[in-house]
Design brief:
25 helices; mainly alpha
Length: about 700
């Protein structure tokens, strides 16, 4: 059995158990062993081992049953002990309840006895205290203070308590009989009060916080307590303002006092609030007045900058003080202090702001025009000017003499940046210094000044001057500067629009002034776009006029009907070369002067007019066969020039024109076939006929017969 037990190992694996049994059995090896394999012997060993295992199992089972019986017996014993303990616990709990009731009964008796003793002792103590007060009162009545409490300086605290009570009693006595003693008590009251304040002052200078706390507690019941607080506040500020920044000094002072005031006074929030009020109403108000009064009437720019800076620093100081305990409504308290300092300056702030902004803007503009040696001309307003504007919009005719601007646009980004910078600063000051209820209205006033000087006095004036400087369409060698005006006006208006969104919108976004500002901006945009459109249209007319002059001067009738048909050496005419060069230059100028869809719109309009000009120009000549080929070459060059427009409609027009020019050279027998081609099939027959009529051989019966 011992051998069998040795074969068990943890963890138990049946296969390994059989292997170990086989190897321990003589004759159980399969090969290479000292004995040959003997299956009978191995079977016999297995049978014996199984019997041993059965015997072992029976023995273990008996042992398990014995242990289970023992466990059940011990469980019953344990349950019995638990029941006994529960019974004992119930008995103990009942005893505890009885003891608790008894203790409560005794405590009630003791409290009742204490109340009785207190009821007896309190009147006795009052009587003793009253007796002492009568004794001290008699000393004042006799005129000689003998008690140690009045003569010993170390007992000033006890003397203060007594004299404070005597002072209250004396106030109830009739004046005619006790006037003398009342004056003596009042005198002693005043003397002790002064001594306590002096003691407090000395302790503060020595930095004795505990002594300051004791004296302040005594003075709390005296009338001079507020004077004690005043002395504390005054001494706190001694040597506190040594830096150049009074606001930083004030913040450091309040932080320092906030840390110690709770250790001295029983009402620290009231004392700290009084200190802050003293700082604002005396130190800061005096400092602000000194800074602003000297430049209030003489230098508006410096006055506004100083006012903005001082108000900002004061509100920043107020924000730092908000972290302190100043009572229930510290926000209102600090706001009132700030208002008391700046109210006289904020009442008329917007008048000063708008007055300065107008004068400053006018000076910036005048300085610019002076640098150009330009005297601004009057644009004019009223009925006559409105009538001229309507006529110009409908007829596109120049009204009045043309002005030679010598290429000057009278627009300056430097001027615009200066105006926008001044207005940006005005908006910032307006946001900070305006009352919330007045903010949208004040911001609108600043916006109207910006519109007046930037949009009307500068941009609109430049547009009017630019319009007046556009020559008539029949002028020769005209210099066209209006596109430069367009380019600069667009750039400037983008800057204006950015300031509108970045600085004005946040100030008016939630007020009725928003719609008013948007409407005013819309009117300004429409007015400027109208003048820009008029100027661009007249400029395009001038461009077409210049092309007409080039064609009239350079194009000869012999170009398309040469005397010697066999001796034509040019690829295209000189007029075509010059016109294309001119057009390419103007296209590049338009692309550089505009942006977005405006470029395509203007180029399309120029392209259409350019096509109409060439179309009408070609209609003026008669073409021989060689001349027709040259005309086709010219149109091909014009079409190549039209590709620079990058406008599909313009290119399509010139493609069609090129196809029409083929009618000038095509064999008469093929005319109908060409006319029914893809590019010419949709054209009016009269247009086709008009081009065929330009052929030099049109009158021949053969050609007329083929085309009819």
């Amino acid at each position: 059995m011992a051998t069998t037990a040795e074969l068990f190992e943890e963890p138990f694996v049946a296969d390994e158990y059989i292997e170990r049994l086989v190897w321990r059995t003589p004759g159980g090896g399969s090969r290479g062993g000292p004995e040959a394999f003997d299956p009978k012997r191995l079977l016999e060993e297995f049978v014996n081992h199984i019997q041993e295992l059965q015997i072992m199992d029976e023995r273990i089972q008996r042992k398990v049953e014995k242990l289970e019986q023992q466990c059940q017996k011990e469980a019953k014993e344990f349950a019995r002990k638990v029941q006994d303990l529960q019974k004992s616990n119930q008995v103990a709990f009942q005893h505890f309840q009885e003891l608790d009731e008894h203790i409560s009964y005794v405590a009630t008796k003791v409290c009742h006895l204490g109340d009785q003793l207190e009821g007896v002792n309190t009147p006795r103590q009052r009587a003793v205290e009253a007796q002492k007060l009568m004794k001290y009162f008699n000393e004042f009545l006799d005129g000689e203070l003998k008690s140690d409490v009045f003569t010993n300086s170390e007992k000033i605290k006890e003397a203060a308590d007594i004299i404070q009570k005597l002072h209250l009693i004396a106030q109830e006595l009739p004046f005619d009989r006790f006037s003398e003693v009342k004056s003596k008590i009042a005198s002693k009251y005043h003397d002790l009060e002064c001594q306590l304040i002096q003691e407090f002052t000395g302790a503060q200078r020595r930095g004795e916080i505990s002594r300051m706390r004791e004296v302040a507690a005594v003075l709390l019941h005296f009338k001079g307590y507020s004077h004690c607080v005043d002395v504390y506040i005054k001494q706190c500020q001694e040597g506190a303002y040594l830096r150049n920044d009074i606001f930083e000094d004030a913040a450091i002072l309040c932080q320092r006092v906030n840390k110690q005031v709770g250790d001295i006074f029983s009402n620290p929030e009231t004392v700290l609030a009084k200190l802050i009020q003293n700082v604002f109403e005396i130190k800061l108000q005096s400092f602000v007045k000194d800074q602003l009064e000297e430049c209030r009437k003489s230098d508006a720019e410096q006055y506004l900058k100083s006012l903005y800076d001082l108000y900002t620093r004061t509100t920043n100081l107020s924000s730092k003080l908000m972290e302190f305990n100043l009572g229930t409504d510290k926000q209102t308290f600090l706001s009132k202090l700030i208002k008391s300092i700046f109210i006289s300056y904020l009442e008329n702030y917007i008048e000063v702001e708008t007055g300065y902004l107008k004068s400053r803007s006018a000076m910036i503009l005048q300085r610019y025009y002076d640098s150009k040696n330009h005297q601004k001309r009057s644009i004019g307003t009223g009925g006559i000017q409105d009538l001229k504007e309507r006529i110009r919009q409908r007829t596109n005719l120049p009204l009045g003499p043309s002005i030679d601007t010598h290429g000057e646009t009278f627009l300056s980004q430097e001027v615009v940046v200066n105006l926008l910078q001044e207005t940006k600063q005005a908006f910032e000051r307006c946001h900070r210094l305006s009352d919330p209820s007045d903010l949208p209205r004040n911001a609108f006033r600043i916006f109207t000044i910006l519109v007046e000087f930037l949009c009307i006095e500068h941009i609109d004036y430049a547009l009017e001057t630019g319009l007046a400087g556009i020559p008539s369409s029949d002028s020769r060698n005209a210099n066209l500067y209006f596109l430069d005006v367009v380019h600069q006006a667009n750039t400037i208006f983008h800057l204006f629009d950015k300031q509108f969104n970045d600085h004005l919108m946040p100030l008016i976004s939630s007020s009725p002034k928003l719609s008013e500002c948007l409407q005013k901006k819309k009117e300004i945009i429409e007015q400027m776009e109208m003048k820009l459109d008029t100027g661009i249209d007249r400029t395009l007319n001038c461009m077409i006029g210049q092309m007409k002059h080039i064609l009239a001067a350079e194009q000869k009738k012999t170009d398309f009907k040469p005397e010697d048909e066999n001796n034509v050496l040019i690829q295209y005419t000189n007029a075509c070369v010059k016109v294309c060069a001119y057009v390419r230059k103007q296209v590049e100028k338009i692309k550089n002067s505009m942006d977005g869809k405006n470029v395509d719109t203007v180029l399309m309009e120029l392209g259409v007019r350019f096509h109409r000009l060439i179309y009408e120009h070609l209609q003026q000549y008669s073409y021989s066969c060689m001349g027709g080929m040259l005309a086709i070459c010219d149109v091909a060059e014009y079409r190549k020039c039209a590709k620079d427009f990058k406008i599909p409609l313009v290119l399509q027009l010139f493609d069609t024109l090129h196809a029409l020019c083929n009618l000038l050279v095509v064999n008469p027998d093929n005319l109908k076939q060409v006319c029914s081609g893809e590019q010419l099939a949709n054209l009016d027959k009269n247009i086709l006929h008009s081009f065929v009529q330009l052929r030099a051989d049109y009158r021949s019966a053969r050609l007329a017969r083929h085309f009819s």
